[in-house]
Amino acid sequence: MNINKYDEKFGEHLLEEYKLYVEMVDRISERRMQTNKFYISLLSGLLALLSILVSVGKFNQSLIFIIVSLLGMALCILWHINIRSYRQLNSGKFKVIHEMEQHLPFPCYDREWELLGEGKEKSKYLQLTRVEKYIPLILAIPYIFLFLYTLASLLISLIWQK
Questions:
Q1: In 3-state terms, what secondary structure has residue 24?
Q2: Cβ atoms 69, 136 nearer than 8 A
Q3: CA distance 154 to 160
């Protein structure tokens, strides 16, 4: 950006843009948390639905297990992709904030990042995404076991029928 081509209101306009941009970053972080809540609710509801369908007993249990386990694993993969996407988006937005702060009197986010060891020192700052990205993988475990259990059961029943 060439500041020389801008008029005398550059600082004023930059500050307004900066405020708006920081607010947008905050909104994205809120959306990220809402997305995490959505996936947790969906995956929990799927397990609850599984228990209801099994207790009713009118359906082919193996088919239900396969469908629910595949759906649960797919949701966990999508959730993991969402987390990665939000991380990339936030990283890009904070790079822009750092660039904007070069033209402001005090670069507060840049200074904060510096004080936190730029995310390299876990004792100063453990990035949420580093922890957050494992949650979908952990929640995928019951669905993976359900899938493997069902496949093993089907294989054993096929072997015993022969």
A1: helix
A2: no
A3: 10
Q: Which two tokens stand for residue 5?
A: 């081509």
CA distance 116 to 147: 42
What are the tens digits of pLDDT across the range 100-111? 889 888 988 888
What is the per-residue pLDDT for 80? Answer: 95
Spatial contact of 21 and 95, defined as CB atoms under 8 Å apart: no
Six-digit token string for 41: 């609710």
What CA–CA distances, in Å, run from 76 to 18, 43, 62, 115, 151? 35, 8, 21, 34, 20
Instruction: Give the mean pLDDT of 141-159.
Output: 93
**Residue 53: pLDDT band with limits 50, 70, 90:** confident
- pLDDT of res. 3: 62
Q: Which residue has the tokens 């904007």?
A: 100
Distance separating alpha carbons of residues 154 and 40, to the nearest angstrom: 29
Rounded Cα gap, residues 162 and 149, in angstroms? 20
